[in-house]
Amino acid sequence: MKKTIKILAFLSVITLLPMVILVLFSPYFLNAYKDQIAKTLGEGLHRRVEIKKISLTLWTGLGLSVEGLKIHNEQGFKNDLLLNMDSFNLSFEFWPLLRQKIESRGIVINHPQLFIETNLKGISNLSTLATPATLVEGSENRKKPEGLASGPEILPGISISKLLIVNGSISDENNLTKDAAALDGINLNLTRLSYAPDGHQSGLVNGINVEGEIEIRQGKINPFHFEKLAGHLFLEKMRLHLKEWTMKSYGGSIQGDFRLNLGEKPLQYEFSGKTDKINLQALVNENSTSQNVIAGDFYSMLSAKGAGLTLKDMENHLSGKGAFALKKGSLKTVNLLKQIAILSRLNLLQQNKGLEETTLESLNGDFVIDHGKMVFHSLRGATPEGEITGDGNVDFHKNIDFRLKVVLNQNETERLPKEAKPFLAGENGRAEFPVTLRGSLSAPAVRLETAEIRQKAVNEGVKQGIKSLLDRFSPR
């Protein structure tokens, strides 16, 4: 028995010794060829590629480690780099190697930085990975040189079971439209990864299919910013799906499902979800030219779809529907009761007389988005003086058109002159003022719809005349 153990130990040493020697001396002979490896990879990507160090590892399983990987841009882009990566570690299954088959137990990528850029000619440095920018920039009639690959063959013949990306970042700058985005602290845990390029499409990302979990520490898309995004990620045939995701933004949270078709121009997207306690004033101030027009905690349910992120794109393609609620809010550009008091020459607004805004204890309703407008239905709000009901719309140029009814509470109604009350009384005897709110959101014009009030006055006058006539002939 002891002899058998010694034989097995000897065979193990003999088997492992070449592997240990290979690993120990791998930095020497692999780095001797790293420039050639970088050149070959660069030819496939049509980019200059740099590699700082290549080595084999054994202590955590047989693997390959690449440090200091840089992929440069072609000329014509502002940023010199397309990708900068601290390290890339690929671990292999041992026995498939003996059958000349490469199977990976996983890939770990540390601190990758991806710099996406669209130049002033509208050419993206991602779109030219499969075809040089000199060809993309030219006409379709320009022939592709013979022998030029139709697209990079990434890790040919390798099966990857898991991909982990740690602390990555992505920046996307469009020098033509001035749109910009930046994502930092990206952590990806991909449990399904495959590369199957479509023969009818070109570009590296077209054939990538992945599934897993994503976390983003913080991000900014144009002015809009967020923190702590987390959810399920699916990418297949250039269609990105973020499922059951949540993120923090403007003091509140946003959650739902998001779909984005990366293969269409302009980008096509769908969203369904809800917002919870968003600081509406901060959101509007940071994402529009209008400042300090509305405030409050914003809650909503929304489903929408569209194509493109420019104002013109959204006017033509964005549509959706939902419901909202605003709590502890205010319309900061107009004091409705003060304007009504001026227009009606009545003494109103006892509680908020000195304010130049309309306090909204709550406001809720339904809305649809269509043809560049948000159309609101069944609006109902509570103010310190009573309530507001009505409907209207806001277009994407921040012009408003609302038809409202301001209803005073019983205390405010009692403060009105006795002779005016009958002409203004509505349900439960409370005074009602029909108004329109039109013009710019930053300086709307308030109009008192006197026709309805006049009609009430006529009706009330007829009633008083009949009553007077009946009183005259009634028995004493």
- Report how far the terminal alpha carbons are from each other: 134 Å
Which percent bin holds the helix content? Answer: 10-25%
Structural class by secondary-structure content: alpha+beta
Provide a count of the helices: 10
Shape call? elongated
Mean pLDDT over all positions: 78
Beta percentage is over 45%
Radius of gyration: 34 Å
Largest sheet entry:
21 strands, mixed
DSSP, total strands: 21
Residue runs with pLDDT of under 50 for 5 or more positions: 1-25, 138-157, 461-476
Describe the structure in your own words.
The protein has a 21-stranded mixed β-sheet that branches. The chain has helices spanning 2-32, 34-45, 94-98, 133-137, 280-287, 311-317, 336-344, 410-414, 421-424, 450-473, and strands at 49-50, 53-57, 63-72, 81-92, 102-118, 158-160, 163-174, 180-195, 208-221, 224-236, 239-249, 252-261, 268-279, 294-307, 319-331, 358-370, 373-383, 386-395, 399-408, 432-440, 443-448. The chain is an alpha+beta fold and 476 residues long. It contains 10 helices and 21 strands.
List the helices and strands and how they pair.
Blueprint: H1 2-32, H2 34-45, E1 49-50, E2 53-57, E3 63-72, E4 81-92, H3 94-98, E5 102-118, H4 133-137, E6 158-160, E7 163-174, E8 180-195, E9 208-221, E10 224-236, E11 239-249, E12 252-261, E13 268-279, H5 280-287, E14 294-307, H6 311-317, E15 319-331, H7 336-344, E16 358-370, E17 373-383, E18 386-395, E19 399-408, H8 410-414, H9 421-424, E20 432-440, E21 443-448, H10 450-473
Parallel strand pairs: 5-6, 5-7
Antiparallel strand pairs: 1-3, 2-3, 3-4, 4-5, 7-8, 8-9, 9-10, 10-11, 11-12, 12-13, 13-14, 14-15, 15-16, 16-17, 17-18, 18-19, 19-20, 20-21
